[in-house]
Amino acid sequence: MEPSPGDGSSPSPSPVDQPYPPSDPPDQPPTAHAKPEQSSGDQPAGPGAAGEALAVLTSFGRRLLVLVPVYLAGAMGLSVGFVLFGLALYLGWRRVREEKERSLRVARQLLDDEERLTAKTLYMSHRELPAWVSFPDVEKAEWLNKIVAQVWPFLGQYMEKLLAETVAPAVRGSNPHLQTFTFTRVELGEKPLRILGVKVHTGQSKKQILLDLNISYVGDVQIDVEVKKYFCKAGVKGMQLHGVLRVILEPLMGDLPIVGAVSMFFIRRPTLDINWTGMTNLLDIPGLSSLSDTMIMDSIAAFLVLPNRLLVPLVPDLQDVAQLRSPLPRGIIRIHLLAARGLSSKDKYVKGLIEGKSDPYALVRVGTQAFCSRVINEELNPQWGETYEVMVHEVPGQEIEVEVFDKDPDKDDFLGRMKLDVGKVLQAGVMDEWFPLQGGQGQVHLRLEWLSLLPDAEKLEQILQWNRGVSSRPEPPSAAILVVYLDRAQDLPLKKGNKEPNPMVQLSIQDVTQESKAVYSTNCPVWEQAFRFFLQDPRSQELDVQVKDDSRALTLGALTLPLARLLTAPELTLDQWFQLSSSGPNSRLYMKLVMRLLYLDTSQVRFPAVPGIPGAWDLDESPQTGSSVDVPPRPCHTTPDSSFGTENVLRLHVLEAQDLIAKDRFLGGLVKGKSDPYVKLKLAGRSFRSHVVREDLNPRWNEIFEVIVTSIPGQELEVEVFDKDLDKDDFLGRCKVSLTTVLNSGFLDEWLTLEDVPSGRLHLRLERLTSRPTAAELEEVLQVNSLIQTQKSADLAAALLSVYLERAEDLPLRKGTKPPSPYATLAVGDTSHKTKTVPQTATPVWNESAAFLIRKPSTESLELQVRGEGSGTLGSLSLPLSELLVADRLCLDRWFTLSNGQGQVLLRAQLGILVSQHSGVEAHSHSYSHSSSSLSEEPELWSGLPQVTSSAPELRQRLTHSDSPPEAPAGLLGQVKLTVWYHSEERKLVGFIHSCRALRQNGRDPPDPYVSLLLLPDKNRGTKRKTSQKRRTLNPEFNERFEWELSLDEALQRKLDVSVKSSSSFMSRERDLLGKVQLDLAEIDLSQGAAQWYDLMDDKDKGSS
After folding, report:
1. Same domain (yes/no): 417, 285
2. In terms of Cα–Cα distance, which of 217, 296, 216, 309 is closest to 267?
3. For residue 90, how far is the Cα from the chain centroid?
4. How many whole angstroms separate alpha carbon 160 and alpha carbon 158?
5. CA nearest 558: which of 502, 505, 501?
6. In this structure, are 341 and 306 located in the same domain?
7. In which band, very low, low, confident or very high, does the pLDDT at 48 lie, cut at 50, 70 and 90?
8. Would 618 be classed as within a structural domain?
9. 340 shares a domain with 297
10. Boundary-marking domain end, from 428, 453, 478
11. Phi/psi at 425 (5° precision)
12. What percentage of the chain's residues is helix, strand, coil (to nearest 5)?
């Protein structure tokens, strides 16, 4: 009787592995003559009997070997439990091993029979599926599979060379215990990789070709390794790999080979199954099997799964290789995991008689980025309210996947999943939907926001203000991302014994640390890796770089880079060498740092009406209004937190430098020049830059900068000196000063040694200005500022304005019925602050503060505008700071009515007069009559600390520009108030014209006065200076500064001629002399800088210009 194909007595070979006999048709099963060796009796009996006996002995030996562990356990006195545990471990290993072998056999058979099964399913005969049969968006590529099959043996030869000549030496050098590591066998087998389908994405960039290859590899690969020192053998025999491989051909060029490079990566983690041999058989033990496959999959993901990719350049000197190897993300998706509803109940009690609920949690994945929410116990409608941010690298292709599970002590139950292509989020901008769960019941509520990447810092403040209004947990929302391309290092220090190090790099921002790979046995490593960080506030965060040996015990160099430096760089990018500290003299690191701001189109965003309730995103229903008893009383004053008004003002005085290194070279380096140095200062997210001093290794800048700082510990002032060049500025050194030290001491005047350069030091003077809530010293502060202000510096601040905007009420509605989405802007001069936007309300609550530096409090004002998102101006307010000067403790805290008459704001504004304790100048107010020796003292209005109420009329008199003569005594021709002071640090004579009073009126109309100054003797009149002209006033205010460059000895030999003049007519060049005074500088204490009134005298040269 002929055996049937279905006979299960013995496994029959597959039709592919066993050729059909000539007598059988190809579509019939093989008959009895397919096994001639079993039916023939012509075989000799000797060898068969010997083989049978050997098989029996082998079987008996194996069974006897199984009893050896039992005997050893009894001999060592171990309990039966050890034997049972070992037996269970062995049975588990056998089961996993057989499952893997069966899986491989089935996969190979399915792959070999694919054409036959496909033809049978489609009712076709045994022939190839035509190439024109295709699916809607995925095309078959049988021609490509034929090419791969033809190339496969040669690819095996290449892999053998690669493993033997490249991988094996690297493994041997990585560890001294692996010095005898070798590959003893490398065979890719006869089963080539198959491409099941190809999808070409059109409509993307015109400079690239995008393909998705659905690959499947079920191979008989065999790779054996051996460590001869330890007699250890291991290997792989058989493997499965399935996934979607994306291939990008870019950039496309106009020259051969048309394509500049090929990039390859898996969009999602491929599935992997490995059959181990040798010592690695232990990895098939239950528990270790999945762990080993996961570890190998992690290694593949670190190399070939997004955001990692394999780049193969096809042309030499390809531009932007780093950008191709690790391109910037396409965008960021902010995922708000809000809630779920209608989940299935998985918990059962009393053997299923009592149905409980579930303890749901969610897993959110995008590529290799995964997040796990917290567990909500006993709830079928959980509210999570969590926010995650993920980087999107490929659109289309990547997917957002959310899986919901029920938390259990043993194995978590699956409740459902949803998937969404990120391209839909890109198109929508903002998606807020309930998504049904597949494979279960219920829905999950997601809010998805697409954040674009901006290459400039213009909208950083707006983004930070917006993020302050976003309720996000477990992490605060990010304002930017940082991509660090770690390229290479040079001249790292050697280890002890002059051994080459194995360098690796740790990059840290706050508590997030990422590590590079280790490069073995070199002090000039090349990493070529990219790292990505989310940034909450790039103004205050720093990138810490540590170069270490792979043992982590030896530090080879360090670098701390404030990220605020990138905010002032072109396109927020730094691409350069960085000098390493705590390293060799020539040790440096090459990196490219790219920052991008995360911008959300806020016109599409609406926040919860009730803060703190997760998932409250629907704002169509207005909150119910209770009775009048329930309405809280309207507050009369603001309630800022304790940190309001505690800011400090730091005055940074950059004086000079000495012994800078020369960087300029001429005639190809044959002639050594000097340097053109300038200084960069960075503190509290702000950057300042001095002017350039040409051709000087001992430059003198003498510039003053001011910045508002807080008392947050850990802040540092970073100072860098550069040589200005036409192409790239050369580094001349850096130094750092702890902000805590300056704030505690109040003053610092030191020569600081420049780091990372052979020579050079910098003279800095830092002072914390004391803020006082009284206007008694304002005039003195203004005088001191006018004297110490340098020619290159901006006007110095006289006061600090702190503003706290709490809320608004009764704002106008849009189109008469809809509430606006208001925000406010506060501005003083060119400095402004924008609050968050409160959605759809006429009574917004902001609770935000801002601080401004005030140069002239008597003339400046605070400008406030309340605007609606997309609806224009809702109201404005202009608050002159002169009103604060006469207020109690220089503070106003009340409701202010907006200019449109509809709407009010609750606001607190307070001034603090900034008094310098270390200016080196004493400002006094005296009245001095030059015509006689008698002194007419001006009434001292600011002595002591008087009550503000009593000094208010006097203060108003000083601040008001009135033409009526003041009551202070004056000469017949009037008086001029001026300060003469010698600035020893700048080596200049400084004259400051404050004002005139009680000038003489010659005609019917008041004069148009100005002041002319001349240093005598001066034949060429090169020292002549004059103020601007004031119109029709007898009491002009000038407040203008003039300088003369001369030594102190020369100044003491001069006389200062001060003339007050007026233009006689519009068309005439003649000038009327209103009065003059001549000061002998030798008789004046030029070190004090006292402001004095001088009586004007007549002159015979009346009318001279």
Report:
1. no
2. 309
3. 52
4. 5
5. 505
6. no
7. low
8. no
9. no
10. 453
11. -70, -40
12. 20, 40, 40
Count of structural domains within the chain: 6
The confidence score (pLDDT) of residue 1070 equals 60
Same domain, yes or no, for 219 and 160? yes
Contacting residues for 336 by C-beta, under 8 A, at least 6 apart: 385, 386, 387, 446, 447, 448, 449
Inside any domain, residue 948: no
Beta bridge partners of 718: 682, 736
Closest CA to 265 of 302, 295, 314, 315: 302
CATH of the domain at 444: 2.60.40.150
Which residue type does 835 have?
Answer: T
Q: What is the pLDDT of residue 86?
A: 73
Q: Model confidence over 685-706: pLDDT tens digits?
A: 888 999 999 888 999 888 899 9
- Structure-token match 């190839």, residue found: 128
Kindly write down the DSSP assignment for every residue of 174-217, as one continuous string: H-GGGTTEEEEEEE--S---EEEEEEEEPSS-TT-EEEEEEEEE
506 and 581 both lie in a single domain: yes
Q: Does 416 lie in the same domain as 308?
A: no
> Are 494 and 519 members of one domain?
yes
Residues 832 and 863 in one domain: yes
- State yes or no: pLDDT of 724 exceeds 60: yes
Whole-Å CA distances, 607 to 52, 401, 558, 842, 1037: 82, 24, 43, 15, 52
- 46's enclosing H/E stretch is helix 45-75
pLDDT for 508: 93
Residues spanned by the domain of 807: 799-812+820-916
Point out which residues pair with 201 in neighbouring strands.
210
Distance (Å, whole) CA 497 – CA 477: 49
* Residue 341 falls inside a structural domain: yes
Number of residues in the chain: 1105
Label the pairing between strands 925-928 and 1091-1095. parallel
487-525: pLDDT as tens digits: 999 999 988 878 888 899 999 998 889 999 888 888 899
What rounded mean pLDDT belongs to the chain?
A: 77
Q: How far apart are CA 576 and CA 301, in angstroms?
A: 29
Last residue of a domain, one of 600, 633, 667: 600
Q: Residue 946 pLDDT more than 80?
A: no
In this structure, is residue 959 part of a structural domain? no
The alpha-carbon radius of gyration of the chain (Å, integer) is 42
